[in-house]
Amino acid sequence: MTSEELRVNVEKALDEIRPFLESDGGNISLVAIEDDKRVKVQLEGACVGCSVNQMTLKSGVEMTIKKYAPQIEEVLNIA
Questions:
Q1: CA 52 to CA 59: how far, in whole Å?
Q2: What is the mean pLDDT of residues 22-38?
Q3: What is the mean pLDDT of the chain?
Q4: What angle do CA 5, 9, 14 make, to 5 degrees?
Q5: Per residue, what are the HEC states of the chain?
Q6: Which residue pairs from 19-23 have beta carbons closer than 8 angstroms and sit at least 24 positions apart in sequence?
Q7: pLDDT higher than threshold 80 for residue 6
Q8: Quick check: 37 and 74 in contact, CB under 8 A?
Q9: Closest Cα partner for 46 from 65, 68, 27, 73?
Q10: Of the N and C termini of the chain, which has fewer Cβ atoms inside 10 Å?
């Protein structure tokens, strides 16, 4: 998979999870993909101060991204 295909797949994953975040007043954006294995995202809106945002990041976002791009090893939220 090329870097561009990887980016498209990660965006598809974020598009899949975005409605759930938006329903709680939040959102997410892709910041970077490093070495084709680490994704950096930024939680936005209500997600920033949410007490369960790390659970959302690992259980929701990371799992969904890995479904579209199995080579991704880690998803990190940047503040």
A1: 10
A2: 94
A3: 93
A4: 145
A5: CCHHHHHHHHHHHHHHHHHHHHHCCEEEEEEEEECCCEEEEEEEECCCCCCCHHHHHHHHHHHHHHHHCCCCCEEEECC
A6: 20/60, 21/45, 21/47, 21/56
A7: yes
A8: yes
A9: 27
A10: C
pLDDT at 66: 96
- Length of the chain in terms of residues written: 79
How far apart CA 67 and CA 46 sit, in angstroms, is 25
Tell me what the mean pLDDT of segment 24-47 comes to: 94
> 34: exposed, middle or buried (C-beta count within 10 Å: 0-12, 13-18, 19+)?
exposed
Q: What is the token pair recorded at 69?
A: 């791009």
